[in-house]
Amino acid sequence: MYYFIVNNTSGGGKASEIWNHTETILQNKNIHYRVFHTQHANHGSTLVRDIIHKEKARAIIAVGGDGTVHEVINGLTGSSIPLGIIPAGSGNDFCRGLGIPMKYNKALDRILQDEPKLMDVGWINGRYFGTVAGIGFDGQVALETNKSSNKKMLNLAKIGRVSYIMNVLKVLFYYQPTNVELQVDSKQTKHKDVWLIAIANLPCYAGGMYICPDARNNDELFDICILKDISRWKLLRLFPSVFKGKHINHPAITITKGKKVTINSNSPITAHSDGEVIGQTPFNIRLEPLTISIL
Length: 295
Ligand SMILES: Nc1ncnc2c1ncn2[C@@H]1O[C@H](COP(=O)(O)OP(=O)(O)OP(=O)(O)O)[C@@H](O)[C@H]1O
Hints:
Elements: E1 2-6, H1 14-28, E2 33-37, H2 43-54, E3 59-64, H3 66-76, E4 83-87, H4 93-98, H5 104-113, E5 117-124, E6 127-129, E7 132-136, H6 137-147, H7 150-156, H8 160-174, E8 178-184, E9 187-200, E10 222-228, H9 232-238, E11 253-258, E12 260-265, E13 270-273, E14 276-280, E15 283-294
Parallel strand pairs: 1-2, 1-3, 3-4
Antiparallel strand pairs: 5-6, 5-15, 7-9, 7-13, 8-9, 8-12, 9-10, 10-11, 12-15, 13-14
The structure holds adenosine-5'-triphosphate.
Protein name: Lipid kinase, YegS/Rv2252/BmrU family
Domain DAGKc: 1-128
Organism: Lentibacillus halodurans
């Protein structure tokens, strides 16, 4: 039996339509499935834990965006049941980073081929993540984006990325870089005027920003991007290059790799993981190698 977790609110509501089309294909192919619709934030994790506890699932499939996949992963970690994804959000960076087709019928075909592969996941302050944890500037952008009332409207107009970029510009105007103490594995360093630290398991976030273009989901390492010591105006000019991952050669960027990261700052800074806001410094982050089986 395949279990589907559908977040009808993902992609400004388009997930519901995508689910209807997917369900038609499942019925035409005579595939046994059950569906659960999330009723509120974090419900996805609870539903998955219940399924694992009571049922013998062949796979659990998230139908939604990165926030929905994030919740499903947090319910699924520790189990060997494979995860499938039907992209139906506004960002869909899990699918972009894993090479899962963006069209629901092709994504379903891939799930039904039944060829799971193991992937690494990250852990930050008690929560698992699959794409990127962003600390500092982009944690603040996630905070603004999640509370902005224009997101749903722009999603419906199929220009959800605009909402994110508008918030990048807003935060760029007021954000104050901070001093940060960083430990990567056994190496401790201090950094002044840090804008952001991104800890990446997959190369992109925020709807196709390739913050760590060389990150791989099964290399048992995080790629870590540190952006510091740059003026607001230079950062504004650098920003467009992140969509192609071309920012990495800029002198304000340092890229390193590691499995275990701790971050402390002189004033509290916010983080997101998979686009979901998770709190403020200090952060303890570690890689859980080859933990989730992905279809
Ligand atoms: N029934 C519900 N009502 C309101 N919010 C919900 C419900 N079910 C889940 N959520 C929340 O919806 C949020 C957004 O979901 P999701 O990330 O899947 O969509 P998205 O933001 O459109 O896509 P993306 O993250 O890829 O940009 C998640 O934080 C999740 O906790």
